[in-house]
Every structure is written in structure tokens, then in C-alpha cells.
Design goal:
The chain is an alpha/beta fold and about 375 residues long. It is built from 15 helices and ten strands. It has two domains: about 60 residues, Transferase, Pyrimidine Nucleoside Phosphorylase, Chain A, domain 3 (Up-down Bundle); about 270 residues, Nucleoside phosphorylase/phosphoribosyltransferase catalytic domain (Pyrimidine Nucleoside Phosphorylase, Chain A, domain 2), CATH 3.40.1030.10. The protein starts with 10 loop residues before the first helix and ends in a 9-residue tail after the last helix.
Length: about 375
């Protein structure tokens, strides 16, 4: 079948291709998502395309094209410190856990690692990053550049930096399931980070995430998926975090090379725990648990955060937890212990309080 040039295709043309099972090359996917973002497609057709891609399985080229369309239209954050990292899950795993990556961001910032945490309100979960931050009293309009400079952290609310994404909001909310947009978000950080730790809900998505970020010039990336299993309180699916509930499959991009391995909680000296041990609720409930964590509470939530933070320190270039391309248990335990110190001494809580009072966005005197 001969397909016209992307510029000659209407959105309906592209939808027809996808509905017949054809994969889209990167240019055609970029054209399709450009039309969505520019408000030139209606909700029914947007939903149709998203589900056609999901049912078949999104390809790296389709994801690359969509990401290019979004990046070219985003409102960027300039002058982010060198080495700034993002930690973000795609959501859509259906397990409704506490906000792990948001908690990890506070730990990293307290350790002096600049974190540009890209997030949104809940679409396919009960409490997204923006929801829980609002419940914590953290203003989402903070000057990101100043916050990164003064508190080593900025929460980048997606609507503020991707305003045109509103054209897809109704279709996404109505569908209420993981779509390609869940994957796009973590790959379109407005601070243009080149270091990322990204969780996905399906192990089949690990390679596309790494492949796309490699094509876009990322420096160091870990993509993680807690392997699919059945929990008594949740569906059979993967987990978009590094988990205590079993092994986590990891894909890495470091020094231009891709690799893979499995990570288990015992490697970092953590006890296994079911997902039900970190089950979350609405924004207020998750916010209360997050603040208790920052005040030094112990348990599976803390251990999950420390395991993820230890790996994030590696991605940030502030630790080395691999030996010959495989997890080094001694190094993992050391990195996790280092992360735990800022929960115990109040430094992570201080980051939260600085954001609440606006001190993080105050200009440092010259």
C-alpha cells in the first residue's frame, strides 16, 4: 500500500490507517499528534486513534513522532542546572499506589540533586502528582528556574507547559485508560532533562521508551516495570515503579549503550511487600502519607521510596550502583542508606516546607 506524504494526510486518513492495523512512521505520527495538539481533531476521532494504537501496540516510531510534536509546541523551562533529573511514572497501571516518584523527588532534592518533576492531575489514577502537591499546599505556579536554583526542585505542571494538550484532555478522561499520552508526558519534560528514571506499566513499553530517548539525545535513562503479577487488591498488570512486590525489569541507556537486567528488593536489603502495603487513596490521603514519610515514618512505603531513590541517584550520576552492568547489592544498600538520612534528619521535610512558604522561589541575593 502506498501512503501519501504526511503533509497530505487528513486526521481521518491517519485514523483509517491505524484502524486497519498499519503502523505509522515517525513523520506520520508527528503529523497526527500535531493535529490533535493544534485542536484540529474531534474527541471521538482522538479516542479512536489512541485506542487503535494501544490495541495493536504502539511502536517506537509512533512514540517518537508524537513526542516530537509535543516538544515542538511546549513552553520550556530555560537555564535548568546541569544534571537535572526527572523521576516519573507513566501511570495507567491500575494499582492506585501512593505517589512514589513525587516522594523520590523530595528525597533527591534534599540530597542536592536538581529535580524537574514533570506531572499532571490524575487521568487514569486517583491521585496524580499535581493533585497530591495541591493537597500538601505546594503552589504549582512557582517560578521553576528559581525553585531549581534555590531548593533543587521544581514541579512542572503539564498544563502550564503544554497548554495545547487540553485538546486531548476530554478524550483521555473519557477513555480513562493508559494511552500513548501517558508515555508522551515523561518524554516531554519542559526543562529538557537528559537524565530520567521512568516507570511504565507494561514491560513491552520498556524498549520503546529507551529507543525514543536515545534518538532524542538523552544521556542516562532507566526505564522500569515491576513485572506483571496478580495482587489480591489489583489487576494483573505491571507496576510503573521499582517495586518491593517482586522483580522489576529495567532497561538502561548509559554512555550511548542500552542494556537490561532484573532488580529485586533484597539486592538493596529491603524486605518484599505486596502492593497492598503501599495502596493509596485520594489526594488528601496520599498527601498525609507523603508528609508522614518526610517526617521519618518507616515501613514498605519508605523502603519503596528508598529503593527508587537509590537507583535515581545512579541515573543522576551521584552514585554507581552497577558492576559489570548488573546491580551491585553493596552499592545499592549504600545509596539507599544515603537517601534515608534526609528522611531521618528532616532535610526532605524542609524542602516541602520551603515550597509551601514560597521560600524556594525567592531570588537568591546577588
Amino acid at each position: 500500500m502506498t501512503v501519501p506524504a504526511p503533509s497530505a494526510l487528513t486526521f481521518q486518513d491517519i485514523l483509517n490507517l491505524a484502524a486497519r492495523g498499519h503502523t505509522l512512521d515517525a513523520a506520520t505520527a508527528e503529523a497526527a499528534f500535531g493535529l490533535i495538539i493544534d485542536g484540529k481533531a474531534d474527541d471521538i476521532r482522538i479516542a479512536g486513534l489512541l485506542m487503535a494504537l494501544r490495541a495493536r501496540g504502539e511502536t517506537p516510531d509512533e512514540l517518537l513522532g508524537a513526542v516530537r510534536a509535543v516538544r515542538s509546541r511546549m513552553l520550556p523551562v530555560d537555564n535548568a542546572p546541569e544534571g537535572t533529573i526527572d523521576v516519573c511514572g507513566t501511570g495507567g497501571d491500575g494499582h492506585g499506589t501512593l505517589n512514589i516518584s513525587t516522594s523520590v523527588a523530595f528525597v533527591l532534592a534534599a540530597l542536592g540533586i536538581p529535580v524537574a518533576k514533570h506531572g499532571n492531575r490524575a487521568v487514569s489514577s486517583r491521585s496524580g502528582a499535581s493533585d497530591v502537591l495541591e493537597a500538601l499546599g505546594v503552589p504549582l505556579s512557582t517560578d521553576a528556574a528559581s525553585s531549581l536554583k534555590n531548593a533543587h526542585i521544581a514541579f512542572l505542571a503539564a498544563p502550564a507547559h503544554h497548554p495545547a494538550m487540553r485538546h486531548a484532555a476530554n478524550a483521555r478522561k473519557t477513555l480513562g485508560v493508559r494511552t500513548l499520552f501517558n508515555l508522551i508526558g515523561p518524554l516531554c519534560n519542559p526543562a529538557r532533562v537528559t537524565r530520567q528514571m521512568t516507570g511504565v506499566a507494561d514491560p513491552a513499553l520498556l524498549d520503546p521508551i529507551i529507543t525514543v530517548l536515545h534518538a532524542l539525545g538523552s544521556e542516562c535513562v532507566w526505564a522500569a516495570c515491576g513485572l506483571p503479577h496478580t495482587d489480591v487488591t489489583g489487576p494483573t498488570t505491571g507496576i510503573d515503579e521499582i517495586t518491593l512486590a517482586g522483580p522489576t525489569e529495567i532497561r538502561t541507556l548509559e554512555h550511548g549503550r542500552m542494556a537490561s537486567f532484573e532488580l529485586t528488593p533484597d539486592m538493596a536489603g529491603m524486605k518484599a511487600a505486596p502492593l497492598s502495603a503501599i495502596a493509596g487513596g485520594g489526594p488528601e490521603e496520599n498527601a498525609a502519607e507523603l508528609e508522614a514519610l518526610l517526617r521519618g515514618s518507616h515501613g514498605p512505603y519508605r523502603d519503596t521510596v528508598l529503593l527508587n531513590a537509590a537507583c535515581a541517584l545512579h541515573v543522576a550520576g551521584a552514585a554507581d550502583v552497577l558492576r559489570n552492568g548488573q546491580p551491585d547489592p553493596a552499592a545499592l544498600r549504600q545509596a539507599a542508606a544515603r537517601a534515608g538520612t534526609v528522611l531521618d534528619n528532616g532535610q526532605a521535610l524542609n524542602v516541602l516546607n520551603a515550597l509551601r512558604t514560597g521560600a524556594a522561589s525567592a531570588r537568591t541575593p546577588e
